[in-house]
Amino acid sequence: MDFTHIQTDLVAQILVALAFVGFVSLVVYYLMQYLYVALKAKKAAQKQLPEDAALPPVSVVLVAHNEAAFLKENLVYLLEQDYPDFEVVVVDYLSHDDTRFVLKLCKDNYQNLKVISFSDDVNMFFGRKYPLSIGIRSAKNDIIVLTDVDSLPSGLQWLRYTVQGFERPRTNIVLGYSMIVAEKNMLGSLQRYDNLIYSAGYLSNALRHHPVTASDRNLAYRKGFFFSKGAFISHYNEPDGAADMFVNQNATTRNTEVNLHPDTFVKYQAPKKYLQWRQMRQHRMATYGYHTFGQKISAATGGAALLMFYGAVIALVAMRLFPWEILAGVVLLKFVVQILSFAQLEKPLGEKWLCWLAPVYEIYFLVANTILLMFPLKYKYKNK
Fold first, then answer.
1. Model confidence, pTM
2. Extended beta strands in 284-326, E state
C-alpha cells in the first residue's frame, strides 16, 4: 500500500488526524465510562453487612399521585426492610384513586409508616419538588433516602447497604443505581441500554470526583445539609430535575459518595409505549440547560468523538484517500474495545447481552438525544 500521497495531501492529513483523535478519545471514553464503573462496582460488592450498632436512624421519603397499583406492590418492601430504626414517609399529593385506602391499610399494620395527605393543590408550580420537600421536612431523621413508588428495592437489606455511604461524617449526598425492568423486545432493549448508559455517565462522573446529576429513585441526603442549601427553592420554577438540579448545584468531591453494592440497587418498570418512554427521557433531559459550560462540554465528549471518528473514516473511504482495509480494521478494533468494556459494565449492574448491540445503539442515541435537546418540553406555569 502506498501512503506517500498523504505527505503532500493536506485534506488526507486532516482526516487521518481527526480519525486518530476520535478513535483515541472513544477508547478513553469507553474505559472511563464503562470499565471504570464496572471495576468500582465489583469492588463495592465485596462490602460486608454492617452491624446494627453502626446504623443511624433513617427516613425513606417518596411522593405518590394516583399510584395505588405501585403502592400495593412495592410499599411493603420498604416497610419490611431489615433495619433497626427507620420510618417511611409517603406524601399523597392530590390522589383520587385508591391511594389513600392502600395507605390507610398499610398504616393500620405498620407503625413506621407516616402519611402526609394533600387534598388541595397548594403547589404554586408544576412538578414534585414541593410535595417532596414537605415530605423531607416532615421526616424525623437526619438521613433521608429518596425513592419512587414505581421502584422496588433489591432486597430487604437495601437500607443497610445504602446507609453505608454515610460512613464518613463529611458525606452529605449518596448516589445509587436504578435498574430498569423492560419487555423482552426491541423497545425494551433500547430502554435498558439507555438507562445503563445514562447511569454509567453520572456514576462515572461522581466516582471521578465530578458529580453532576443523579437518579431520584435511589438517592440519599442529610436533611440538615438539604435545607442548609436551600432545598429546591432556587429551582422551583423548573418542573423537572429534583435530584438533578440539587445534586448539580451542591454535590462536591468531598461531600458525595457513590454506593454500588448490588443490594443498594432499585428496580423500576419501563414504560410500555415508545411515546411514554420518549417523554420520560425528555423530562430527564429537561434540566440539561442549567448545567455549567464545563459540564456540557464533558457530556458532549462521547458524541463529538463518535462524530469525528465516523465522519473522518467515511470521508477517507469516499474520497479514496486511505486504504479501506486499514480503516475497516480500525473500526473493528473500536467495536472490540467498546463491546468488551460494555460487557464488563453489564455484569455487576445486572444486565446482559446488550454489549453486542452497543455499537448500533450508540449511533441511534446520538441522533435521538440530539433531537430531544432540540425540542425540549414546554410548560405553562401555574400562576396563583
1. 0.93
2. none
- CA quadruple 246, 247, 251, 253: dihedral, nearest 10: -170
What DSSP state is assigned to residue 217? Answer: T
Cβ neighbours for 306, distance < 8 A, ≥ 6 positions apart: 22, 26, 362, 363, 366
Q: What is the pLDDT of residue 384?
A: 43
Q: Which three cell numbers stand for residue 92?
A: 399523597
Domain positions in the chain are 4-39+294-374, 51-271
Cα–Cα distance measured from residue 317 to residue 112, given in angstroms and rounded to the nearest whole number: 66
pLDDT of 282-318, one tens digit each?
Answer: 988 888 888 888 888 888 999 999 999 999 999 999 9
Mean pLDDT of 251-262: 95
Other beta carbons within 10 Å of 348: 21
Q: Supply 215's cell numbers.
A: 437518579
DSSP, res 169: T
What does the alpha-carbon distance between residue 264 and residue 282 come to, in Å, rounded to a whole number?
A: 26
Structural contact between residues 144 and 221, judged by C-beta atoms closer than 8 angstroms: yes
Determine contact, residues 175/257, Cβ cutoff 8 Å. Answer: yes
Integer distance in angstroms from the first to the last C-alpha of the chain?
A: 74
Which CATH superfamily does the domain covering 51-271 fall into? Spore Coat Polysaccharide Biosynthesis Protein SpsA; Chain A (3.90.550.10)
Q: Which pLDDT tens digit goes with each residue over 315-340?
A: 999 998 888 999 999 999 999 999 99
Report the largest interatomic distance among the alpha carbons of the chain, rounded to a whole angstrom: 83
Task: Give the HSE-up count for residue 96: Cα atoms under 13 Å, Cβ half-sphere.
Answer: 3
**Which of the four pLDDT bands, split at 50, 70 and 90, describes residue 373?**
confident
Q: Alpha-carbon distance 361 to 371, whole Å? A: 15
Are 176 and 188 in contact by the 8 Å Cβ rule? The answer is no
Is pLDDT above 90 for 159? Answer: yes
Q: What stretch of H or E contains 35?
A: none
Distance of alpha carbon 43 from alpha carbon 35, whole angstroms? 12
The helix/strand/coil state of 67 is: coil
Residue 217, amino acid:
R
Return the pLDDT at 243.
79
> DSSP string of 122-139?
--SSSSSHHHHHHHHHH-
